[in-house]
Each structure stands twice: as structure tokens, then as C-alpha cells.
Amino acid sequence: xxxxxxxxxxxxxxxxxxxxxxxxxxxRPTIVNANDDGWFETVSFAVPEGAPWTSLTRTRERYxxxxxxxxxxxxxxxxxxxxxVLIDTGFGLxxxxxxxxxxxxxxxxxxxxxxxASHEHFDHAAGMSxxxxxxSSDVVLAAGSGDxxxxxxxxxxxxxxxxxxxxxxxxxxxxxxxxxxVTDFAARLSDFQTQANIDxxxxxxxxxxxxxxxxxxxxxxxGHTPGSIALYDGPSQTIFTGDTLYAGYLIDNAVDSNVDxxxxxxxxxxxxxxxxxxxxxxxxxxxxxxxxxxxxxxxGEEDCSYVVEEIPGTVKPLSRSSSSxxxxxxxxxxxxxxxxxxxxxxxxxxxxxxxSGSSASSR
Length: 363
Ligand SMILES: *[C@@H]1O[C@H](CO)[C@@H](O)[C@H](O)[C@H]1NC(C)=O
Ligand SMILES: CC(=O)N[C@H]1CO[C@H](CO)[C@@H](O)[C@@H]1O
Known about the structure:
Layout: H1 20-27, E1 40-45, E2 55-61, H2 65-69, E3 75-79, E4 84-87, H3 96-102, E5 113-117, H4 122-125, H5 130-134, E6 139-144, H6 145-152, H7 156-169, H8 171-174, H9 185-190, E7 200-202, E8 207-211, E9 214-220, E10 229-233, E11 238-242, H10 259-271, E12 276-279, E13 285-286, H11 287-298, H12 306-310, E14 319-321, E15 344-345
Parallel strand pairs: 4-5, 5-6, 6-7, 11-12
Antiparallel strand pairs: 1-2, 1-14, 2-3, 3-4, 8-9, 8-15, 9-10, 10-11, 12-13
The structure holds 2-acetamido-2-deoxy-beta-D-glucopyranose (NAG) (2 copies).
InterPro entries: Metallo-B-lactamas (IPR001279), NDM-1-like (IPR050855), RibonucZ/Hydroxyglut_hydro (IPR036866)
Domain Metallo-beta-lactamase: 72-281
Region (Disordered): 315-363
């Protein structure tokens, strides 16, 4: 399947060669009022039945033009009893680590954190750079082995550079408003940091342990990028899919994409038991919606967002809290913390199944 570039409202030359999300960005400017709230917005979700986590939150960047299309990137924070995992980090223009700490979503002094990039693209991985500097706790930066080098070598900047260059001319096409705390947005963009040192390259079958039996298993899903990964929780049949699967335009023609690999990865996802899926963009999906997106993609459709509208069951957040106040649903990890560091472990899993076993080793 080859994605076509929407032509309406797309006025920048070269759009056709970009990842489609860039096209979406460049084509749909809308200004929103940024005076009332922060750059990030975090909401709580119910912990899926059977998942041994203490909390699950989603953070988004409020003022990307993606937000106006409902396709802003999702950053999922999963709290276990002893450690937490953050999947994706955004553009890196504001400090996500500080936001999560200030909001009580993550206590850096007590909770080891594994920051995972679902893939190399700047709207997911660029924000990793703020974590080591901003925190004193044990933070591990991790990414799929196929994309880790892109982030470490700042090749993520290859796509980010396009963003920065184009923003110099068309800032409104990418960000609807500067973050309130940034007085000179243009100057800030010139400092755009995308490089982060990946501590741990993740491969198929690696596991991340969060305490009390909570284990997330890495699935290597090349296609969107070589190192695209998903994280799977077996007991609750929950998957975090990154950009491999969401209800929208699935991108298999970006710079490092591979259509054949994408199809293989979709086949693996189709064979997996999934009750709920938390994607890299858009709404959280029921198992039925998840399968419908796969069918949609396999059917050659460009826009799979309609399946969310046609099938009930969208997984909704529990509450909204975009400022620093904690709600009862977003419990800070302030109890029962051990000094056990999060570990990522390779157990040589079969490439066609998600291993359920786990083992531990120091990083
Ligand atoms: C983090 O946890 C420690 C230990 O429980 C506590 O003393 C500290 O106040 C917490 N920090 C925040 C910001 O909640
Ligand atoms: C450090 C600590 O208090 N650990 C406790 C966490 O909770 C489990 C059971 O809920 C206890 O077994 C641990 O001792």
C-alpha cells in the first residue's frame, strides 16, 4: 500500500516526500489560545483489568497543529509498584520530565523510570533529551535497536530539521501557539534538542519489569521505521503500539519505512490477543477497534480513523487535569518503593510470539 498525499490545502513543495504526519501538519493550520494552560496536558486512564499497574496516564502537547486534528502524539506513563515506564516524549520543546514531576505523576527521587521511544521520529523521541539532565533518579533511555542509533546520533534531527526549517517560514503550520512560558519561540526553536544517548537498545522479547509481577514485553515491529516497537502486557492483553497502529493515516512511506515489513508487523498484531490498545496518536482503542484498524490498513485504506467512529468502545480517560494538581485517579508513586532498578532483559523470544517469561539483570 502506498499512501498518497492529500492535495487540498497542501501548499508546500516537497510535501509528497515527507512522512504523512508532516503533511497533515503543514496543511492544517489553526490557532488556539495558549494563555490558559501549559504546553502539556495529562489525563488519567483506568488501569486495564488484569494489569498489575498502579496508574496509567496519557500526556499530550496541547499546541501542536496535530492537536487540532486530534492526531497529536500520545505519551503513556505506566506506573508499577517499583518502577515506571514512559512511552514517548514529544518534540522536546518543553520539559516533559519537569511536567511529570510537578504534576505528581512521577516522583523522580523514588521511582526508577525507563523512557522508551516507540520509534525515532521527532514527535515521539525528541523529548528524551530532557530526562537525564532533569532528574536525579535512575533513568534509563531505551529504544528499539533499529532506531536507537538514529536517536543517539541525532539522526532524529533529520526529520526534526525539516520541521525547524519549515517552522522558520511557516510557524503557524506546526505549532498553533508558543508555550506560555516561552517568550521568544523562534529563538527556542533554534535550540531544538533532539539528541539523546540511548542507554539500552530493545529487541524482540526484551522485558521491562515494574514490580509485583508487572512485565512489559517488547515486540519488534519494523515497517513505520526499522526500530518501531510495541510493548505488550500479557495478563491484561494490553498493547502500546506506537505509530504502527492507530486510528488515522498509517504511514508506511516515511524516510525509513518498509512496506513489506509493515505488512508482516500487521500480521503479527492481527494474531495477538488484544483487549485494549494505546497508540502513538489518537484515541485508545478497544480490541474490536484495534482489529478494525488492521483490516482497514490491509484493505488499502488511507485513513483508518473512521473505524473509531463506527465501532463503539473507545477507551476514554478518567479525568482531565492539565495543571499540576493530582487527582485521585493519578496516584503518585509515593509508597512501596524499593531501590530495585528497572531492568530490561533479553530472553531470546520466538519472533512470532510474545514471550511471557521474564528474568532480571542489571543494566
Ligand atoms: C517523592 O517521594 C519522597 C519519598 O516518599 C517524598 O519525600 C517526596 O516528597 C516526594 N516528592 C514529591 C514531589 O512528591
Ligand atoms: C518496600 C515495601 O514496603 N514493599 C512491600 C510492598 O508491598 C508488598 C505487598 O503489597 C510487600 O510484600 C512488600 O514488602
